[in-house]
Amino acid sequence: MRVDVVSIFPDYLSVLDLSLVGKARQRGLLDLRVHDLRDWTADRHRTVDDTPFGGGAGMVMRPDVWGLAIDEVLEPGGQLVVPTPSGEVFTQRHAEELASAGQLVFACGRYEGIDARVAEHYRAAGVTVRELSIGDYVLNGGEVASLVMIEAVARLVPGMVGNPESLVEESHGAAGLLEYPVYTKPPSWAGLDIPDVLLSGHHARIARWRRDRALERTARRRPDMIAALDPADLDKHDVAL
Ligand SMILES: Nc1ccccc1-c1cnco1
Predict the structure, then answer these.
(1) What pLDDT does 240 receive?
(2) How many structural domains does the chain have?
(3) Are 59 and 112 in the same domain?
(4) Are 6 and 97 members of one domain?
(5) Nearest-angstrom CA–CA distance, 162 and 29
(6) Is residue 238 part of a domain?
(7) What is the CATH number of the domain that holds 196?
(8) Is 161 helix (H, G, I), strand (E, B) or coil?
């Protein structure tokens, strides 16, 4: 998979040289390229933004500069990802969909955003354009959101992680529930012991305990996920004793 990131702060993406994504690049599993949007400007000041039509505070990123950059970087069949607070909220489902693309181009907007005609232009040209938010909070730009999405997508690329079983995300995937609490040695710490059932060696009871804790935690923290559970799946969480 090829991933391109276009930003006015390309150094922000240098963290991608580390860890999982860095290893994937070295192993040729991921072709990651970072570009400075200003390389597609023609003026002395390398201008990428201007005042908004209709007035208002802040600046808007120019469509002509973005168009030159995306025209050069986007391959046929590649998808355009525009991190934006006004986008669909990014979920594991989006990560799975994006992981099957041949190329992803992340357009990192700053200021008040990118001129709306950019997304409109590429959609009209038949390009899949995904305007995605990573959550309801304000960031200064799309770089951090791109890092989040690139990590979520890259780890799904075949060969990226050693044990494919670990890809079935406990918190957002296998059972549609949040992860149950986990414990490791020492068995007693700060006057706190681990639940006895986890020492029982009774696997069915352990599985039941874990399912119950996951259901409790999900009901308390993410009632929306409980509401989204397919009743037919509910028996998936049931464990015969
Ligand atoms: N706040 C932002 C500003 C610029 C580009 C993306 C975002 C964003 C993405 N997900 C949440 O916020």
Answers:
(1) 42
(2) 2
(3) yes
(4) yes
(5) 13
(6) no
(7) 1.10.1270.20
(8) coil
pLDDT tens track for 104-125: 999 999 989 999 999 999 999 9
**Which residues span the domain enclosing 211?**
171-233
Straight-line distance from the first to the last Cα atom of the chain, in angstroms, rounded to the nearest whole number: 44
Tell me, yes or no, whether 176 and 150 share the same domain. no
User: Alpha-carbon distance 226 to 11, whole Å?
Assistant: 40
Looking at ligand 1, which atom is closest to the CA of residue 141? 4
Q: Is 60 in the pocket of ligand 1 (CB under 6 A)?
A: no
Ligand 1, atom 5: nearest CA belongs to which residue?
142
pLDDT of residue 238: 55
pLDDT for 236 equals 62
Residue 21 counted as domain residue: yes
Please give the ipTM for the structure prediction: 0.99
For the segment 139-181, what is each residue's pLDDT rounded down to a tens digit?
Answer: 999 999 999 999 999 999 888 777 767 666 544 544 789 999 9
Question: Does residue 144's CB lie within 6 angstroms of at least one atom of ligand 1?
Answer: no
Tokens linked to 116: 């709306």
Rounded Cα distance, 129 and 37, in Å: 18
